[in-house]
Fold these 4 entries.
Entry 1:
Amino acid sequence: MYKIIGADEKEHGPVSADQIRQWLAEGRVNAQTQVQAGEGTAWKPLADFPEFATAPKAAVTPPPLSAPAAPQKTSGLAIASLVCGICGLLTCGISALVGLVLGLVALNKTKKGTGQSGGSGIALAGTIVSAVFAVLIPVFVILAAMLLPALSKAKERAQTINCVNNLKQLALGIRIYSGDNKDQFPPAATWCDAIKTNVGSDRVFKCISGDLNQRCHYAFNAKLAGQDVNKVASDTVLLFETTGGWNVSGGPELMLGQPRHGRLFVVALADGSVQQLTAARLKSLRWDP
């Protein structure tokens, strides 16, 4: 005979082994139920008794299936926040400000929501993207506005230096020609052809800021053609900027109407030096040898 401790924590029995098997089949006891096989013996779980190992177990009825939860709808504000944040790239951060507000509202609603609306991740992403673009893009715009004038001046300065170097090489080429031709300046009508082999590259005939369709952007002072270099005043104009053309020669009438390099005109003198002059100083230039 056996005794058991029921779910009510009270002893029941003595009962027979058959009765315990019936209770086991009915689910009134289980493998963990404490059982005493006789007076004075130790209490043990029912599973420790081999005579009940083959007893039929109570069928376990599975819990009723609950209806699947309805999927949450993604918050429209969250989506709008992300879209506005991305569009901040195209609107210089203006739409990103709107996206930031929408993202904060969407985050607040998804946190306090009843489960019918979701998208907290999208709302967070929209808030972050909007905040970044709303701050960084205006900063970049301001920096660009500050740097562009400086970059423009640097570019202008580089072009001026290039033009100065061109005229220095052309003036040197003329001096080399003169040294090989009885100290005489080249003919005005063919001066480019005459010094071409003395300058090394056709690129020195062109100004970066000039018309790329022209072979040369400089003119020769026609009054120096065939003159003795030793008898010409050193401050006489030798080469000057013009609109373009090969073997162009003449006088001040061929000078550029507007400077290519900011407010400066570049002129080479008979002694080989190169000067950068404003329009006001052009009137003081010497053209006659």
Entry 2:
Amino acid sequence: MSSLNRTGFTEWLIRENGLDEPGLKDWIFCPGMLFHSGRKWWSDKGARDTPHEGLDLFLYRDRQDRILRLHENTRIPVMFDGVLVSIINDFLGNSVIVEHAFPDRDKGGACTIYGHISPLKGLHMGRELKQGDIMGRLANSGRSGFEVMPHLHISVGLVSGPISYDRLTWDTIGDSDTLTLLDPLNVINWQYEILDDDNPICRDLSSMT
């Protein structure tokens, strides 16, 4: 079990946030937003404490070829059917962890982690969620004290045995013996483009409105 089925995540995000017009044609990434990147894409663009555990969704290109960004309060859907197993604080908001079982696979399951969001009221441990259900909105990073714009962090992991989700934090996620992190680009099932570091968009992300 080395991969996961692709998800309709982007289609659901478009639908739930009224992005059909002008559209979301491609996700756009600067190198620091990618899985296993060793550095930041914001502020001083310095080194990360640990390699990036997932993917940062922030920029996209519309059908008029404009590069736009996700804004706070963007509604965030769940990728697969699952059960909410943990909500942890992160440096911009909260991270929601959802565990998924796949009966058609031989063994093990998976989990998806959605970082920097404000969970919906009433969301609680043990809540069953269907793919496409909205679990929260992008957090307002202006209240955090960090110089980073609102963005969605997604981590995807294969679970090979019992795991204590209450002990899973951003300090331990990369060291878990039972969680194998995957590149979310292989799961989100949408067109994308990776820009070079010297692209004006990547050089001055703070100018995005």
Entry 3:
Amino acid sequence: MWKLAANPEVDDLSIVPEDFRPLYVQDGDRYKLNPELASVTKAIDGLNTANAALRKEVKDVKASLDLSPLKEYGDTPQAIAETVAARLAEYESLKGQKVEIDKVRSEAKAAFQKELEAAQRERDEALRAVDRYIVEAQAVQAIVAEKGIPDLVKPFVVGSLRAVKKDDGYQVVVVDRDGDVRVSPTTGQPLTPHDLVKELKSNEVYGRLFESDAPSGGGAAPGAQRANGTIPQPQPPGSAVSKIARGLDRLGR
């Protein structure tokens, strides 16, 4: 950089930058700065010094500025700014799409939940059917073992039985009116369907639904007449009461 203050006189004007040559005047064989332009010369030197300092500062900033973390966006600040602006515009367009995605996800979740609840209801119904089958099967088995009439005795038995799932299968137990498992006072174990059927057989009323273990002959109570001497009223064929009446009639004969 040419400094006027450092070159007040020159032997050859050609070495002076062309823009500064008008500031020199010939003095004999040499050229010197025009003293009438001293203030202008000083101002130009000051401006050149300031510009040099500014350029150095810009150079230092560029040297210290590390853009490597943003290299995926570009190599220059301008390129980085353009890339960031494009990414922001893309994000804004996706915000609207996200609403639709959330709606689809919510609808799919609701549909799945509905199907899951339906499957659970089917499973629960299947389990209840299995429980009913197991309870009725063991009830009939116990009734037959005690020589009872299954169609007549079963309605009085199954309501007091519950199937309990165990690690090794199902266990059918006897429960009371509150749903608590009844326990045998002698063994301390839960009562079985067979225990319950034996209780009914030993009962004065329900015992008539079983074949008597006593020898046949006199003393058998007629099944067609109640304890108070009244005759039962006819019932519609096929009703539960008529089945019980027919069973009692057979036992009384």
Entry 4:
Amino acid sequence: MKKVKQIQNSARTSVDAMLAGYYFQNSKRISYDPTHKLIYRPSTSNVALISGGGSGHEPADFGYVGSNLLTASVNGDFFSPPKPGAIIEAIKKTDNGKGVLLIVKNFPSDMESFTKAKFIAEKAGHKIEIVCVSDDHSVENSSTYSKRHRGVAGTVLIHKILGALAEKGMSLSDLKKAGEQLNANLFTLGVALEGAVLPETQRPMFELDHDEVYFGVGIHGEDGYRKVPYHSSEQLAIELFNKMKHLTDWNSTETYAVLVNGLGSTTLMEQYIFTHDLSRLFKIENVNAAFVKVGSYLTSYNMHGISLTLLRLPDPSWLKALEEETDASHW
């Protein structure tokens, strides 16, 4: 198989170079700790919000450090979570006495690293809580139909809502409760047209025939639930929409936030074509989409694909929080 050219110098130094480039652009607004791979902003008088994970999902999570959003992002190596020591350093840099909320995607290695950091930081006197995001409702394979429940693109909506609530002075315990309520109303499903080509091997993480798409594939190339011939954007929209309808059991009295997320190499034209197909289905089903975002917000490096996130909005303050202005670079 022919290798794919990528703009990099060395896979080993790519994460550090990326963060340094991001800081060069945003140095008037944020701070950068290259030793611990931290992007952070000055502490405020509120609870600090820290998130992060493996690199390769940009602009998540450093693109969401800003007002009404995150206080810090801890960035691991490619598809690998940050070490507990780096997370502890982020806590030290941002905790002003009101406590720290860690927003963690539900992957075993991520949860292990952040939980260990929480334990060590608490022994040092910090007040720490964790919100675990598990919005991926795809099934792992077509035989078991067990739910994946990993943290994917919906995490970005939780970042924004909790960030805005923290900025209004919400306590650490109340932010944790709000995060758990948000997660219970959050649903994401995805589809890939091509696997990401990994920077070290220059080869795709999974293979598809030329005419195939892969429903339910994970953001690290985890198995999806079905490969089928590809026909159109409308086909993709109908599949994901109908799955969402079954998951949420929506009715016309409910309000939803919608996130259409490109997975890395999906063009904006493709994203908006898919969104148009989706909007027609929403109209047919009389679903109230009060908030809609379209773009690449949590990617799988350069995977060609798209994900759909729905967040049920039973609390009007959640919608208001989504609409609050921010200076974060990629919201």
